[in-house]
Write a sequence for this structure.
């Protein structure tokens, strides 16, 4: 593959104001495309906000997939030739899921429903995503999605790696008290899986909950290619070749020091993980 430009939009989402949030997501997508981005990622619950008090409130800010939001994303993706990942609350039957959608010029590519739910914000109210984990083969690379708290479970990232992901896109809402995730966990997932990690947090304060920013794009070595400099709204950009994530064998000194954290696994010793 050739290099692509990836944008992460650290958005200050307004709770329950889905129309306003949708327009700002579309606006930022165009701005990112103007700066050369081919893949644009937004935070968790970017369409709806996160700190809801009741399921009824959350349901009022949810949408079906496909629905009005994904239709708007599909249109901007066709117009600007980009792929977009954005978080939303998804209405499906009687359930509300904390979801992320992936759209591109060809339309709706996929949806991911959060599989690990902390006792926090809207996750106290939503339904656990049933899985399975999926990787989507796109013109900008093989993309896998997780959401926020999912990052704390290394098995999820490893599953996406084994499915062939080049890039892990992580819409997130890291509040105060979550510093370990951007400081240590996101780079660790990149290193242990030899993949790119695009972690996009939200900005601002919502219902008394402050968010810490620190959106980042991390390469397989664990080096941050881009990091948000504030806790406010900000666009981060990085350019890289996703195919680098397919080179799992790390050769420090040929024939002397070589490691492969995927190929050197011992699955027969890990059965306790699924007991």
């Amino acid at each position: 593959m050739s290099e692509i430009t990836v944008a992460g939009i650290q958005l200050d989402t307004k709770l329950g104001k889905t129309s306003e949030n949708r327009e700002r997501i579309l606006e930022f997508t165009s701005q990112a495309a103007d700066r050369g981005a081919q893949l644009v990622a937004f935070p968790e619950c970017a369409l709806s906000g996160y700190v809801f008090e009741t399921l009824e409130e959350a349901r009022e800010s949810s949408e079906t997939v496909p629905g009005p939001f994904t239709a708007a994303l599909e249109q901007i993706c066709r117009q600007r030739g980009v792929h977009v990942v954005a978080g939303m609350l998804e209405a499906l039957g009687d359930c509300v899921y904390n979801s992320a959608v992936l759209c591109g010029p060809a339309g709706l590519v996929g949806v991911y429903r959060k599989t690990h739910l902390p006792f926090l914000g809207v996750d106290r109210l939503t339904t656990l995503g049933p899985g399975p984990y999926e990787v989507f083969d796109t013109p900008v690379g093989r993309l896998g999605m997780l959401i926020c708290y999912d990052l704390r479970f290394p098995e999820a990232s490893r599953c996406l790696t084994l499915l062939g992901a080049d890039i892990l896109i992580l819409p997130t809402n890291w509040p105060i008290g979550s510093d370990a995730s951007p400081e240590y966990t996101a780079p660790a997932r990149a290193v242990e899986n030899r993949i790119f990690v695009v972690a996009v947090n939200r900005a601002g304060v919502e219902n008394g909950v402050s968010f810490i920013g620190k959106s980042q794009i991390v390469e397989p070595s664990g080096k941050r290619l881009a990091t948000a400099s504030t806790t406010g709204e900000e666009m981060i950009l990085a350019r890289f070749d996703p195919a680098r994530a397919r080179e799992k064998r790390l050769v420090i000194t040929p024939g002397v020091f070589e490691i492969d954290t995927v190929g050197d696994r011992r699955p027969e010793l890990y059965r306790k993980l699924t007991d």
